[in-house]
Amino acid sequence: MPIYEVQSQRGTLSPDARRALVESITAIHAEETGGPVDFINVIFADLEPDSTYTGGKPSRPVFVRGQVRAGRPDEVRLAIMTRINDAVMAVTDVDPMRVAVVVEDLPSKWAMEAGHVLPEPVAAEEDAWFAKVGARPA
Amino acid sequence: MPIYEVQSQRGTLSPDARRALVESITAIHAEETGGPVDFINVIFADLEPDSTYTGGKPSRPVFVRGQVRAGRPDEVRLAIMTRINDAVMAVTDVDPMRVAVVVEDLPSKWAMEAGHVLPEPVAAEEDAWFAKVGARPA
Amino acid sequence: MPIYEVQSQRGTLSPDARRALVESITAIHAEETGGPVDFINVIFADLEPDSTYTGGKPSRPVFVRGQVRAGRPDEVRLAIMTRINDAVMAVTDVDPMRVAVVVEDLPSKWAMEAGHVLPEPVAAEEDAWFAKVGARPA
Partners for A (CB, 8 Å, 3+ pairs)? Predict the structure, then answer.
């Protein structure tokens, strides 16, 4: 965790745009949460042509939907959403009205990674978790 | 928002069925919530053959999973789910047992569109939001 | 419900691995919840090459994300997540650090299947639901 899923119609985001988004979403989440980079996932779920509609008409949206651990202040979420929106706008010419960013809280205990239930997003629990899974946070 | 995602195996929904579903889901959400049509998204996430199983056996389900802003009465959700289920049944011959409709609440502040955090689903906040983003609600 | 969605890059899971995962996820959910097998969905959402990144670098993760009815004890979720993680590890050689399992609660009334709002996960309500939809639980 987190998992950020970018949904758009195939071709909306060029390979360069995708690489740039991976870098910015990863950096934004790490900077705003203060968490380690090593477990930040960004995936692209491409949709087929004729698969995206807004207001009943064909559209070319970009949706970024993140699932993050619950427990951080509202300002963190707002900063993440604002910066991800800007990052999408910087690499594509889609209509700004069609860019949506969702950052959804998930209780830590609803998720497991590397075989261990996730820690609450506080340093002491995270340190203990990293010790358990044997990973070195970046 | 909302974002309604229709998941089915490629070929389960004909192009005509998809067009009909876009129209009905858009109309249903607009009518039941009283909200503007312009920001209602319907997307199709096609799954490959051999990618859908129910009870451990190959199946051909249709899942409609919507994320909507939290804050509306239960009757609105029930009406949306019932009518979407009927709309799916009207355009495909899949087993009615294999049609699932999920309408998931999302706190407005968990989502941003057009660069602005979404308003609560009440008229005064929505009007202010539309003024900010410079869109005219349909 | 439930719906378990397995996300991985195309090719990460062999056809045999997928069949094995369908069987284990279905059995695990049924055993741990005591619920009927007939409505347990497992679907695979394949991602394209160059579509999955962790820590900013290309990765080959396996995510299993389930949506289940809310209302069961924490131990049930923990058992489901632990056993699904083990099942994934048993059929693929992906890095254990890149396996994530999410089991997300959904209020029963947020979902409809076979045209009827889902029952709370207690026997009496489930029996009434099965009678309504005319299905025989397996």
Answer: B, C
